[in-house]
Structure formats: structure tokens, C-alpha cells
């Protein structure tokens, strides 16, 4: 209930339109396009990963004044573990003056390499008083995960690392979770996965597979997205179930928001907040700067210009406003941020209707109706 009150207190009267010139608080950092999986919902593994930033260039990127207020940074890829000498990059990240939280996403295929890397990051984060969170991708059990990731034996590699981190969390991070991307390939197996994770004490979160410009998956959208298949009903059922299943109010709201979006395909409305509307940025492995990863084109390169000159350029701000106006309601990526009061009360009305309906059902049962 405390979190529900906090959700209300963080709610905004008016929707964010992207016009404000604010330095990013959150930075998404796809540090390489190199990848060792062939995921059905992603084309990163087909993309060129040449000419990525040297450590000298990366140091200059991190020292750009645009990032002086970044509190949260997420490292992803590609696959982070394919950067053999990751340590100097981590050193530069941890020099960000306002950084409070660091997150890394991995498929964990390179088990021992990954564990060594996150131990190193954990140690450095402790020295810098930065919280460190690990997220490992798991899209199903056994053959389901192997098929989604396009790699035979993927499940066995991944679950071994998950169990190691679960059993010795403090050695590797402050916190961890397993992330599942819902697609046509696994939507009918999610209850099995969810049950497995509950039995084994694995903290799992679910996100909806969507079109994403950064990972260049628009041409394969119809092959993986449940919105293009008969699996839509299964997806709605699952996220409705997760709303009731979760005890954490933030998670309840997230899963309700996905369910609500799926249920209203003729009049889509994003209820989830999104910090990328005005306080988030994406910086790729070549120094290309973007707003959000889902819809933004490259705004310019830090190899050629200062971050603020790119990020706050008037035409780019207009471009961000256009994204917010015309694309955000079509997006159900699990980005988070402050929500509107309207979204909050949509959630509350849903809760109250459910409780009222249950009360009526109980009364009817007692009356034998």
C-alpha cells in the first residue's frame, strides 16, 4: 500500500510532451553490437560491429558534460561479455559524477567469463558506492529458450549462471532479476516458466516484445510479435494473471498497463511512464546519440560534436516532441517513469471494479443465485 501511495504522489497532472531541455538522468549504453545469439525478436546479431569506440574515445564520451547528471546507467548490447577487456570501460562509467545505479543485461552464455566480469564490476561499484543490478535473459524452459535465442544448449548455459547468482547474490551484485521477452515463440509456455521460477526462487520479470529501431527488428515484427497472431489472447490472459499474482504495486501497475494496452488495440493508450520522454538518452558503441532506443533515429555523433549541441538542438527537440505525440501510445516497452494522474485513476478504477464484482459474486453465491 505504501508503494501505491508513492505511485500516486509521483503522478503528474499533465502528460510530458518532450519540449523541456533537461540533461539526461538515465543513460542506456549498448556498448557493442557484437552478439553471440540469434534471437527471433532481434537483428542485432546481423548488424555490423566494426569501428566501435576505443577506450580513449569512450573516455571522452563519458566525460561529456551532457552526462553530468546521469544517476542510472544500463549496459547492454549486443552481448557485453564479448568485450574481452571490459574493466577500463567500467572504470570510465563509474567516474560519472552523479551515478547511483548501474545495470547490466546479458544472455550469460559465456558463463565463467560473465561471472568474472560481474564480480569485477561489483567490487568497483562497492568502492564507488554505486548499486549494481544484473539482468539475465531467460525466455522459456529448455527447447523454448534455445529456439528463442537461436542457440542449442542456451538454456543449460543460462540457468547455470542464474543459479550461481541466485545462491551467491552478494558476491556478484546488489540485486538481480531474470528478464523474459514475450513473443509468439514462448507465449503459450509462460505459465510453465513462471511456475519453474517460483519453485526455484528465481526473480523473473516479463516484458512485451515490440518493434525497436535500435535492434533493427521491424522487418521481422510479424514473425515474433503476438499482436500479429492468434497468440494475442494468450498474452492478455498471462499479463492479467501477473497483475493478480504480483504483490508489489509497481509490478502490478506495469502488468496491468500491458494488459490494458493489449485489450485496447483499437484505441491504444500507454499508461506506463517513460523517463525517455525528457530525461533519458541512448549512446551506442560508436558514439551515436539517440533519445529512446525504440523510436529515435541517431541525432548525431559524439565523435563529431558536443553532447549538448546534439541533444538540445532545436530540430532534435522538435523531433522528440513528435515521437512523444505520435509514437508513445503505440509503445508498450517496459521503460518506467512518472505516470499521469489519469493513468493512476484508470488503475484504481480497475482495482475497485474487480473488488466490487467479487463482492457481488460472493453475495450471489450465498443467495444461491
UniProtKB/TrEMBL annotation:
**Which cofactors, by name?**
[4Fe-4S] cluster
A molecular function GO annotation: metal ion binding
Any signal peptide, and if so, which residues? none
Note the InterPro entries from the entry.
Aldolase_TIM, Radical_SAM_PqqE_MftC-like, rSAM, rSAM_sf
Q: Which UniProt keywords apply?
A: Iron, Iron-sulfur, Metal-binding, S-adenosyl-L-methionine
One short Pfam name that applies is: Radical_SAM
Q: What is this protein called?
A: Fe-S oxidoreductase
Instruction: Name the species this protein comes from.
Output: Vibrio parahaemolyticus
Amino acid at each position: 500500500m505504501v508503494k501505491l501511495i508513492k505511485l500516486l504522489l509521483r503522478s503528474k497532472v499533465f502528460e510530458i510532451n518532450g519540449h523541456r531541455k533537461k540533461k539526461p538522468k538515465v543513460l542506456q549504453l549498448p556498448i557493442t553490437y557484437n552478439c553471440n545469439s540469434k534471437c527471433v525478436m532481434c537483428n542485432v546479431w546481423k548488424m555490423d560491429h566494426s569501428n566501435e569506440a576505443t577506450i580513449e574515445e569512450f573516455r571522452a564520451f563519458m566525460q561529456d558534460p551532457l552526462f553530468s547528471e546521469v544517476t542510472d546507467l544500463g549496459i547492454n548490447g549486443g552481448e557485453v561479455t564479448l568485450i574481452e577487456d571490459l574493466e577500463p570501460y567500467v572504470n570510465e562509467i563509474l567516474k560519472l559524477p552523479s551515478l547511483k545505479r548501474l545495470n547490466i543485461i546479458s544472455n550469460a552464455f559465456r558463463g565463467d567469463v560473465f561471472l568474472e566480469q560481474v564480480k569485477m564490476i561489483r567490487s568497483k561499484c562497492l568502492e564507488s558506492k554505486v548499486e549494481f543490478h544484473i539482468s539475465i535473459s531467460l525466455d522459456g524452459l529448455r527447447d523454448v529458450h534455445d529456439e528463442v535465442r537461436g542457440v542449442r544448449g542456451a538454456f543449460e548455459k543460462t540457468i547455470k549462471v542464474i543459479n550461481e547468482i541466485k545462491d551467491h547474490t552478494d558476491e556478484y551484485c546488489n540485486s538481480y532479476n531474470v528478464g523474459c521477452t514475450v513473443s509468439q515463440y514462448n507465449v503459450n509456455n509462460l505459465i510453465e516458466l513462471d511456475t519453474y521460477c517460483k519453485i526455484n526462487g528465481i526473480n523473473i520479470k516479463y516484458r512485451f516484445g515490440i518493434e525497436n529501431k535500435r535492434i533493427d527488428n521491424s522487418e521481422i515484427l510479424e514473425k515474433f510479435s503476438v499482436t500479429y497472431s492468434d497468440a494475442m489472447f494468450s498474452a492478455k490472459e498471462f499479463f492479467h494473471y501477473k497483475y493478480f499474482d504480483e504483490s508489489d504495486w509497481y509490478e502490478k501497475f506495469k502488468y496491468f498497463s500491458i494488459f490494458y494496452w493489449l485489450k485496447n488495440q483499437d484505441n491504444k493508450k500507454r499508461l506506463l511512464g517513460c523517463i525517455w520522454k525528457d530525461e533519458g538518452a541512448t549512446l551506442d558503441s560508436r558514439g551515436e546519440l539517440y533519445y529512446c532506443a525504440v523510436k529515435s533515429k541517431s541525432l548525431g555523433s559524439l565523435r563529431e560534436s558536443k553532447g549538448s549541441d546534439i541533444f538540445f538542438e532545436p530540430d532534435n527537440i522538435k523531433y522528440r516532441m513528435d515521437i512523444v505525440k505520435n509514437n508513445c501510445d503505440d509503445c508498450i516497452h517496459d521503460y518506467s517513469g512518472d505516470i499521469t494522474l489519469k493513468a493512476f485513476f484508470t488503475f484504481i478504477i480497475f482495482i475497485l471494479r474487480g473488488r466490487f464484482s467479487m463482492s457481488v459474486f460472493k453475495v450471489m453465491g450465498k443467495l444461491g443465485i
